């Protein structure tokens, strides 16, 4: 599917004449090429079938994890009770430059999977590995460059930037308004009553001319 999208973008590029449109298409082309490059290599059908038949049970998607980092590694900790009792080959991790897939087979009659796509920065496939500890799988992603990561994935970074932009503004009164809205939306009944009361009192003071009111 990605390959078809890429071919269509290339076709549109040959027809586009306006610079702005060409720039947008070029950006999309590079993005698609990167996604295709980072896709795991497809396995032969017979290998896939063999893996399916060896799995048995049902598969659970892992959502809970912890992570840490050193100068050289990103470390992801996944808690799985009794995982150290499994044969080593039952714990598999496939790495690409910007992703990894974890598969734990036949742990207490279940299979466990975890996928991380669009890692924040490139990793070294050859330098990455996994370690099995008591009730824990440790995935070690070797950084290509020894630098601090602010988060694990590109999606997390974009989400943080959007949230920051929503509440970080050059207009202090606008920033305060956004902050109040966030507190009101996330607060309990007591918090909402407090904010409402403060708002009413501020409006009353403004109407009397006691204080300037920008929000």
Automatic annotation (TrEMBL):
<protein>
    <recommendedName>
        <fullName>Calcyclin-binding protein</fullName>
    </recommendedName>
</protein>
<dbReference type="GO" id="GO:0005737">
    <property type="term" value="C:cytoplasm"/>
</dbReference>
<dbReference type="GO" id="GO:0007507">
    <property type="term" value="P:heart development"/>
</dbReference>
<keyword id="KW-0539">Nucleus</keyword>
<keyword id="KW-0007">Acetylation</keyword>
<dbReference type="GO" id="GO:0015631">
    <property type="term" value="F:tubulin binding"/>
</dbReference>
<keyword id="KW-0963">Cytoplasm</keyword>
<dbReference type="InterPro" id="IPR007699">
    <property type="entry name" value="SGS_dom"/>
</dbReference>
<dbReference type="InterPro" id="IPR037893">
    <property type="entry name" value="CS_CacyBP"/>
</dbReference>
<keyword id="KW-0597">Phosphoprotein</keyword>
<dbReference type="GO" id="GO:0005634">
    <property type="term" value="C:nucleus"/>
</dbReference>
<dbReference type="InterPro" id="IPR052289">
    <property type="entry name" value="Calcyclin-binding_UBL-bridge"/>
</dbReference>
<dbReference type="Pfam" id="PF05002">
    <property type="entry name" value="SGS"/>
</dbReference>
<dbReference type="InterPro" id="IPR037201">
    <property type="entry name" value="CacyBP_N"/>
</dbReference>
<dbReference type="Pfam" id="PF09032">
    <property type="entry name" value="Siah-Interact_N"/>
</dbReference>
<dbReference type="Pfam" id="PF04969">
    <property type="entry name" value="CS"/>
</dbReference>
<feature type="domain" description="CS">
    <location>
        <begin position="60"/>
        <end position="153"/>
    </location>
</feature>
<dbReference type="InterPro" id="IPR007052">
    <property type="entry name" value="CS_dom"/>
</dbReference>
<comment type="function">
    <text>May be involved in calcium-dependent ubiquitination and subsequent proteasomal degradation of target proteins. Probably serves as a molecular bridge in ubiquitin E3 complexes. Participates in the ubiquitin-mediated degradation of beta-catenin (CTNNB1).</text>
</comment>
<dbReference type="GO" id="GO:0031625">
    <property type="term" value="F:ubiquitin protein ligase binding"/>
</dbReference>
<dbReference type="InterPro" id="IPR008978">
    <property type="entry name" value="HSP20-like_chaperone"/>
</dbReference>
<feature type="domain" description="SGS">
    <location>
        <begin position="138"/>
        <end position="215"/>
    </location>
</feature>
<keyword id="KW-0833">Ubl conjugation pathway</keyword>
<dbReference type="GO" id="GO:0044548">
    <property type="term" value="F:S100 protein binding"/>
</dbReference>
<dbReference type="InterPro" id="IPR015120">
    <property type="entry name" value="Siah-Interact_N"/>
</dbReference>
